[in-house]
Amino acid sequence: MKLQRKNRLRASALGALVVSGALVLTACGSDDNTKDSGSASGKPSAAAAGDIKCDGAKGKLLASGSSAQKNAIELWVKNYMAACSGVEVNYKSSSSGEGIVAFNQGTVGFAGSDSALKPEQVEESKKICTGGQGIDLPMVGGPIALGFNVAGVDKLNLDAATVANIFNDKIKKWDDEAIKKLNPGVTLPSTPIQAFHRSDDSGTTENLTKYLKAAAPDAWPHEAAKKWAAPGGQSASGSASVAAQVKQVDGAIGYFELSFASSQSIKTVDLNTGAAAPVAATGENASKAIAAAKVSGTGSDLALKLDYTTKADGAYPLVLVTYEVVCDKGNKAETLPTVKSFLNYTSSDAGQKVLLENGYAPIPAEINAKVREAVAALS
């Protein structure tokens, strides 16, 4: 018994150390001016010290899906496994589409997705969720950053129409009059714009194009989709690769989750939304925009309809919400306790605080309260 206790203490200490190191790395790589929530102090995250309830969790839980929430899931898993001895949570970061396929094949306990289930996917889930169906639980929010690399330019303001015209190959140089008008007093070079987009089907692309379609419909004639449709520009596979290109190419601009910008010290665009001042891409500002979302799902399904055109002060509307897709009823008996225990932690105050510490956006309290109720009712 003493040896087991010693091993548990050692595992807990190691888990806290790994999480603390990850938080320090993220904070050190950040170039935004918002104050970090203490993660750079060397202290363990609030979640690591929180009361994680294991509640009968046991064995191995497999999950897969969205890469946009990869960094958040990894931190949650480290905290959770440090608290719940003998439990293993294995999340395969692939894509939303692959995650939902795996979920509807019954090979994972839950899936991560950047988009809510489509009606045909819900119907398919009923074969796996005995007596129930797949539901969407919003768990991770975050800003999609527009990272830029323009020599001599440290701060850049753009509006939706200008962003659309840049990525639609209409604005070709950084000293274009439309950009100059939004950045009075800033010396902009005549450097050609190198716009990078995703080559793979991407939930991040889908959310960017939803924003452009809603906020600048005249400048963005393409339908919102996971596959890039605009002409011109250069492509790269995955957010990490797009960020790497922006980092090394003068005149570049691209889009990716904020954590990729923070970890590589890439400067990000402030959006001119019509609010009193341009809005920076931060977790807090993304949360303000997500707070304007409406629940479009029914029953325990909490799919959200985001407001990409909000002009509220301090609200950054270019956001992404990822869902955990689970069975409301008919979960496998051997994994149900772990699914409920883990998602109870991720939706807790401590779990959501991890998001803000790492460039993501906590789900607004009113919506998150409904998520907790849905998790408690899983069967």
From TrEMBL:
CDD domains: PBP2_PstS. GO terms for biological process: phosphate ion transmembrane transport. Residues 57-349 form the PBP domain. It comes from the Bacteria. GO terms for molecular function: phosphate ion binding. InterPro entries: ABC_phos-bd_PstS, PBP_domain, Phosphate-bind_PstS. GO terms for cellular component: ATP-binding cassette (ABC) transporter complex. Phosphate binds at S66, S67, A68, S96, D114, S202, G203, T204. The keyword Translocase does not apply. Residues 1-27 form the signal peptide. Coiled coil: none annotated. PROSITE patterns: PROKAR_LIPOPROTEIN. Transmembrane segments: none annotated. Keywords: Phosphate transport, Signal, Transport. PANTHER family: PHOSPHATE-BINDING PROTEIN PSTS. NCBIfam families: 3a0107s03 (TIGR00975). Belongs to the PstS family. This is Phosphate-binding protein. It comes from Streptomyces subrutilus. The gene is pstS.
